[in-house]
Amino acid sequence: xxxxxxxxxxxxxxxxxxxxxxxxxxxxxxxxxxxxxxxxxxxxxxxxxxxxxxxxxxxxxxxxxxxxxxxxxxxxxxxxxxxxxxxxxxxxxxxxxxxxxxxxxxxxxxxxxxxxxxxxxxxxxxxxxxxxxxxxxxxxxxxxxxxxxxxxxxxxxxxxxxxxxxxxxxxxxxxxxxx
Length: 179
Prior knowledge:
Its EC number is 2.4.2.10. InterPro entries: OPRT (IPR023031), Or_phspho_trans_dom (IPR004467), PRTase-like (IPR029057), PRTase_dom (IPR000836). Belongs to the purine/pyrimidine phosphoribosyltransferase family. PyrE subfamily. It comes from Micromonospora rubida. By secondary structure, the protein is α/β, with parallel strands linked by helices. It has helices at 3-15, 36-39, 44-55, 72-83, 128-139, 156-161, and strands at residues 16-22, 28-33, 63-67, 90-94, 107-108, 116-124, 143-152, 166-171. The strands form two sheets. Strands 5-4-3-6-7-8 form a six-stranded mixed β-sheet, with helices on both faces. Strands 1-2 form a two-stranded antiparallel ribbon. α1 (3-15) packs across α3 and α3 crosses α4. The radius of gyration is 16 Å and the shape is globular.
């Protein structure tokens, strides 16, 4: 099995939780994909980085990140995976709101102004979180080249409607969660 198949197995074994939940979008579902169980796992996180680097290998960007918290381990996994292949890739964190103290930055990490960046998320249903990050990145002077997620729960249309390329490593059908 390759990285893509191995990561899918981790997702199915560790992250898919059955039971009634309310998603960040406010929608209700009978199951939840808790990708932090994968993105923060010692064996799965490196796979996340390699799979998403491969998924976006034809896009040119030199920094990756998104809205905290879902995007943080994804961006760090990509940063670490990139370093193993001698690729320079920085990571950043987009806060939900600017800080009221210190440097009062909304985007933490290396400056994104004037840089080509990739916005990421672990999973997305409506695209709201990742599009909030995109807005903050553009306000900070970054050029957002696209959006990539591990699991798409339906956000693709909203992200593409906002004028951005969108890719997902897995769909719900890939995980056996829809017919």
